[in-house]
Each structure stands twice: as C-alpha cells, then as structure tokens.
Amino acid sequence: MRWVLPDHIQDALPSEAEKLERLRRRLLDAFRSHGYQLVVPPLLEYLDSLTTGAGQDLKLRTFKLVDQLSGKTMGVRADMTPQVARIDAHLLNRAGVSRLCYCGSVLHALPSTLTATREPLQLGAELYGHAGIDADIEIVRLLSEVMRLAEVPASRIDLGHVGLFRVLAARAGMVPEREEELFDLLQAKDVPGLRELLADVAEPARSALLALPALYGGADVLDEARRCLPDEPEIRAALDDLSTLAAALADLPISFDLADLRGYHYHNGVVFAAYGSGSPAALALGGRYDSIGQAFGRARPATGFSLDLRELALHLPDATEPGAILAPAVANEALQVAVAQLRAQGEVVMTALPGHEGSWKEAGCDRQLIERDGRWTVGALQGE
User: Fold this and answer.
1) Of the N and C termini of the chain, which has fewer Cβ atoms inside 10 Å?
2) CA dist 153 to 46, 157, 199, 314, 316, Å?
3) What single DSSP character describes residue 205?
4) What is the DSSP string of 322-370?
C-alpha cells in the first residue's frame, strides 16, 4: 500500500498538470503586466511568523512540527498571505506602494469541505501602501480580469465590509467566544440561532445584527442597510465605501452580502467573494487587511485576493491541442534540422527509443516524421 496517498491529497497527472501550468503562467503574466512582482515565500516558517495576527482559524489549519536544528515549533504554510505581508513589511521595507503576487502549494490540516483538497495551489495578488478605496477598486478589477483570462468569468462578485460586523459586535458587548458563535451563525444565515444567541442583547445592536443575513442582493441593499442599521460614523463610512465600489465597478457583476465575513479574523474593511458560472462555492476570496503587517514591524495598508488554482482548473474545458510528433531514432542531419524547426514552431517532438514495446499513441503522439525523397515531413502516426 505504499502508493496510497493520505486523504484529500492527490497527484496531478499529465493532463491536469499541463492545464495547471498553462493557467499558472497565463495568470502570473497578467499580474506582471499590471505591475505585480512575483515573490516565492518558503514552505516552512516558525509557527509564530505564519500565524501571528491571522486568527484562530488559520492556526487550526496549520500543520506543526519541530525544527531539528533549533528545537522551535515550525509550521507548513496554510495561507501565503501572512508570508507576503511579512516580505513587504520586513524585507522590502518600501515607503510607497508595493504590488506583489505569488503562486505555490499550501497545506491544510483539514479539508475546507468534504470534496476539497488539503493541498491547494494558492495564487494571489496583494497591494500594499495605499489606504484609499482606489486600491480596493484595482484589486477587484484585477480579480475579474484574472477569472476572464482563466476562461471562468465571474458570474457574481459579492461585496461586504467587516467593519459593520466589528462595530455591531462591539455594541452588543460580545466576548470573543460568543463573537465566534455569532460569526458562524451569520455565515450560515441561521436566523433562529441568531435570535437565541442575541436574546439578551440590547437594542439597536440586536435588531441590526438580526438584519444582516437579509441584506444581500443588488445596490439597493445599501439603501436598506442605511435605514435599518444604526446611524454611527463607522457604519456610515463602511456603507460609503461599498457605495463607491458599486459606482466604480458598475460594469462588473457586483452584488452585496453584508453577512458574508469569511476571513474576518485579519480583514478590517471591504471583503469580497467571486463566483463562476455553475460553481456554488466561491472561487476567489479577498479583502482589506491593514493591520496584519504590524506583527512584522509595520502596519501597512493592504488589500488583495487569492484563489486555488486547482479548483479554478476544474472549471476549464479540456484542451483539444494536437499531440506530439514522433521522430525516429536515426542519425540523420536533415532529420535533426526538421525536429529543431518543429520545436521552434511550438510543436512537441518526441524521439523514439530503440526497442520500445509500448504504444506511442499512449505516450501522447498522434503524428510522426516520415522521410520522402530525402525530405522529412509530418504524417499520420502509423502502426498504432
């Protein structure tokens, strides 16, 4: 049973690996064209560095081990966002705006859903150093562009604001344990559970929290929120931010869900979730997280998004590109010239090996080089 992998861990076979690599190159090239510079954080770090400021949910998802050199506790990264924040705050130490992107495997102690992998291939982009709403607009537009390039255009991008939840939870006097329970109930839109939990909470915080699950839909949701939520400066500012986004991104499939708070442990402003056609779960998540860099010496303004490249690739159509061309194993100068020319044109040319007993079609070939009158030309694969 040495070939059996752990639950929710799987290999990427040639067709999937090819799809993943093409998608990775395409999207990283898109990031580069927008000025986002690639960084490659390490797979392992000391646990404190990986999880500081990121919340209890990330700590529970992180595999832990002891470093044999130092004796300190280390972790296998479960999310690259804190690592990139460390790079910006501590290593680059730039005074102005910094745009960074990344792509690499992360490891989860438990799968996020029954069908999810525990080894997502996380790809993302982060913008540091600008606290204005223009940075959030840029990031949401970049996400939309990335999904379009991946041939999985966003069918819906839900916007929310963690500031609303934080203000209302504080007004309700929630201790951390009850705040976690409140968060879970809001995510599930469990109104009966919310009524029970908030039974002893004073008005207007109680009614405002009970109203959040129903505040989802088009831009009119923001008008309804202004009517039913307390008229406080922090709430007005959060709704103003969402209104600005709605106007600036009117050409995108923007909607609102004021109870969707995924990642609220380290987000502090606008949050968003992007969905593709036929996908019940969000394909990308993001938002503003201005305080996470404080643990590394600089609390820089920050906003960004990430997605699982493996999950995104599942929604792509299978490639219909031609297979490889088989070249015979003969010492022939004209043949070598023909092979070099074909490879320069982007064709895959596979050289036959003497004594091969398998099927070249199975190896990926659908054509072969044939000599006719001293010239090598591409023809149909023979003898398969």
Assistant:
1) N
2) 38, 10, 43, 14, 11
3) H
4) --EEEE-S---HHHHHHHHHHHHTT--EEE--TT--S-TTTTTEEEEEE
Burial class (CB in 10 A: 0-12, 13-18, 19+), 357: exposed
Q: Distance between CA 184 and CA 203 in Å, rounded?
A: 21
* C-alpha distances out from residue 345 to 333, 339, 363, Å: 19, 10, 21
Cα 12 to the center of its chain, rounded Å:
18
Q: Is 372 helix (H, G, I), strand (E, B) or coil?
A: strand
Angle at 309 between CA 304 and CA 311, to 5 degrees: 115
Under 8 Å between Cβ of 206 and 198: yes
The predicted pLDDT at position 286 comes to 94
Q: Which two tokens stand for residue 212?
A: 């959040």
Distance in angstroms (rounded) separating the CA atoms of residues 313 and 309: 6
Residue written as tokens 């000599």? 371
- pLDDT tens digits, one per residue of 314-323: 888 776 778 8
Residue 106's nearest CA partner among 148, 62, 147 is 62
Residue 51 has a CB neighbour count (10 Å cut-off) of 24
Whether the ω angle into residue 204 lies within 30 degrees of 0, i.e. cis, is: yes
